[in-house]
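Many introductory courses stop at the sequence. We go one step further.
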Amino acid sequence: MPTTRRAFLAQAAAPAFLAAQARRRPPNILYIICDQMRGDAMGCVGHPNVRTPNLDRMAAQGVLFERCFVNNPVCLPSRQSAFTGRYPHQHGALTNQGKTIREWSGTLVETFQKAGYRTGWVGKNHTYGNELVGNLDYASIRDREPFRDYNGMVPPYWHTDVYWPEDKCYPEINTQEALRFLDGAQSGGEPFFLHVSYFDPHPPYMAPAEFTQHYSGREMRLPDYVDPNELSGRLAEFKDGFGMENASKADLTETMRYYLAQIEWGVDKQVGRLLQGLADRGLAENTVVVFTADHGDFMGSYGLVRKGMFLYDALLHVPMIWYAPGRIPAGKRTKAQAQHIDLFPTLADFAGLSTSGLDLPGRSLKPLIEGGADDPRRPIFTSAGYDELTPIQINIPVDPGDEATTPRHSMVMNHNMGQRYKTSMVRTPEWKMVMTETRGPELYAMNGGVVEKKNVADKKEHAGVRRKLEKELDGFWKW
């Protein structure tokens, strides 16, 4: 069940002397990440349908970044950027077909372990090579339940109720394993670094009926429709090849219903259990908690669902909440632009650890979290790979009997994940530019928002902005 308001208020109202005592000790770190959650999919940022009481209370008692962006639109390279502190073209994985981290030294977890922290990892990995997992003090790794596997008969927007008992499903098991780690940390005495990684709300979109019944497809509010052709032909071709041209509004709203139920159950409920676990063990006053996601989901944007190798905010904009009762301000919101390569230096800064010898391109957000000023002009960058779809792939017939073990949308997705070509993006609060090797430039007037509506790269009145951003991208990653 969701954590009670009383528990949150009790944590926030810890006696001053306990908070002061906690600040004198190295803080514990609880780094929570979920998979494929959009930055607008929380009640505290105004989503009209989702139920996220625990995340909303966490934001009310912590610091909410309304403009946080990942450095790649898919799992592996995005997670590697967070744990190496480097952009994808620097660590080498540009898509999910890249390699996992193979060097322990100089990474986020190793930095904390070297400083005497007990390290733990629970849930999805998709970050470090399996040979490095043994370096952790505690590891309980799992990805998706076997019953979630795709088959040749399902559409790309597959959704259904979970039919396993909740306590046998991985979100619940991951949380229980994390609480077991906290039990050991409570008795061990040394500070800890615990990473808890949930698979939800990654597709297939599934949740127990207890949660799906909270939502009605008729009540779902999809993002305002924007024709993919207004952005790029590559996105339009992907939508066609992915089999979404014939998806109805009802298909999308029903899918959103399950997506939001997944967030309520597989993310929000679990975060509440973790925060309650800290409080029950007397660890809340000396633990810095950060919650975020590895990337977003189209989830109705441009008539699409799931993800792809595209640098649009539906996939790059993610939640970020910092929570540390008595250590950071409560109820602060910021529109300052943050990115995932900032996580490494920020967490190290909270623990008093130096990263000066690592030459990380990100910056610590700690001064901003604690009330400092921000540079509103600081740009966000991403780098990624992709492969073009061929005419045959775009027009393959939807025939469940053809390659029945690999659905059409999976074949298109797998090809799109190739690393043959390069793409990069720079964005400010007002403007965003995307460059690709095979198509023309894309320029969007963002006006402080997170929705690209029309490519204006060829408009003469924006030529100066285009030249400036092209120069920035050339300096960021010269192909």
